[in-house]
Amino acid sequence: MKIKLVFFLLVLFLVFSAGFAQVQLGGSGCMPIKLVNVTPDRFECMKERLQDAGITVPPGNEGELSGQGFTAEFEWDG
Questions:
Q1: By CB neighbour count within 10 A (0-12 exposed, 13-18 middle, 19+ buried), where does 70 fall?
Q2: Rounded to whole angstroms, how far apart are CA atoms 6 and 47?
Q3: Are 18 and 42 in contact (CB under 8 A)?
Q4: 69 Cβ partners below 8 Å, 6+ apart?
Q5: pLDDT per residue over 25-52, tens digit each?
Q6: What is the pTM of this model?
Q7: 14: how many CB neighbours lie within 10 A of its CB?
Q8: Partners of residue 70 on adjacent β-strands
Q9: In angstroms, rounded to a whole number, what is the distance separating the alpha carbons of residues 7 and 69?
Q10: Cα angle at 25 between 5 and 32, to 5 degrees?
């Protein structure tokens, strides 16, 4: 649970620090988190910052993040 919270806070910080995106949360549990208004530059920056934090991020616009005890799927539709 602590790892999920750290990951979620890292993503929120990366997105909102630039003020370019909004988050739409699903219900509870394993519902997806949708980030809107993420530009291509911001998307690449988010991936780089996650990699700098030790998270494995595959190249491309979709895949599976993993590291520090968690896995998550992502998809960016541009």
A1: middle
A2: 16
A3: yes
A4: 3
A5: 555 556 777 888 888 998 899 889 989 8
A6: 0.60
A7: 20
A8: 67
A9: 10
A10: 80
Host domain of residue 16: 2-75
> Tokens representing 3?
């790892």
Question: What one-character-per-residue DSSP string does the chain give?
Answer: -HHHHHHHHHHHHHHHHTT--EEEE-SSTT--EEEES--HHHHHHHHHHHHHTT-B--SSSEEEEEETTEEEEEE---
At 4, is the pLDDT very low, low, confident or very high (cuts 50, 70, 90)? low
As for how many domains the chain has, the answer is 1
Buried b (16+ CB within 10 A) or exposed e, 32-51: eeebeebeeebbebbbebbe
Half-sphere exposure of 52 (CA within 13 A, CB side): 9
Contact 10, 53 (CB under 8 A): yes
Rounded CA gap, 47 and 5, in Å? 18
